[in-house]
Amino acid sequence: MYVIELDKSVGKFPKFRSKNPNFLFGSSCFYVGQSAKIPLLRFKQHKEGYKSNSYVKRFGIRLIPEFYEKYNPIPSRKDALDLEKYLALDLRNRGFGVWFN
């Protein structure tokens, strides 16, 4: 599990805004993901374009460990997928712009 801060300008994209109907432009934005890789390696892969999310590749700034460290390691892929969705929706409900798969 990992959370990446995105540049706030990602909030200008209609597709991003459509998934975040309560998003106020200027609020913090994040990408929530899960992987068998350690978060730092996965972040580097995103930025280099390897199996990357386009928002992270273009707008990814840094990892935000305080949002995910308490959950790692996650015992199973199913748990990781469930937790990814839970954390993403929790951040979205707190007023942040969030993208997840």
Task: Give a short overview.
The protein has 101 residues and is of the alpha+beta class.
Description:
The chain has 101 residues and is of the alpha+beta class. It has helices at 14-18, 39-48, 54-59, 77-93, and strands spanning 2-6, 29-33, 60-63, 97-100. It has one domain (2-100). Helices cover 38% and strands 18% of the residues. Strands 3-1-2-4 form a four-stranded mixed beta sheet, sandwiched between helices. The chain is globular and about 35 Å long. The mean pLDDT is 97.
How are helices and strands ordered from N to C? EHEHHEHE
Unreliable stretches: none
- Largest pleated sheet: 4 strands, mixed
Radius of gyration: 13 Å
Please state the average pLDDT score.
Answer: 97
Q: In percent, how much strand structure appears in the residues?
A: 15-25%
Structural class: alpha+beta
Give the tally of structural domains.
1
Give the overall silhouette. globular
Number of helices: 4
Strand element count: 4
Measured between the Cα atoms of the first and last residue, the distance is 12 Å
Strand order of the largest sheet: 3-1-2-4
Helix content: 25-40%
